[in-house]
Amino acid sequence: MTKTLIVGNWKMNLNVHQASLYVHELSSEINHHDDVDVVLAPSFIALQTLSLQVKKHHLSLAAQNCYWRDDGAFTGEVSATQLRGLVNYVIIGHSERRHKFGETNKEIRAKVQAVLRNGLIPILCVGETADERANGETKHVLHDQVSGGLANVASDEIHKVVIAYEPVWAIGTGENALPKDVESAEETIRHQVESLYGHKAATGTKLLYGGSVNSDNASDYLALKGIDGFLVGGASLHVQQFSSIISKAHQLKGKKS
Ligand code: 13P
Question: What is the CATH number of domain 4-256?
Answer without folding.
Answer: 3.20.20.70
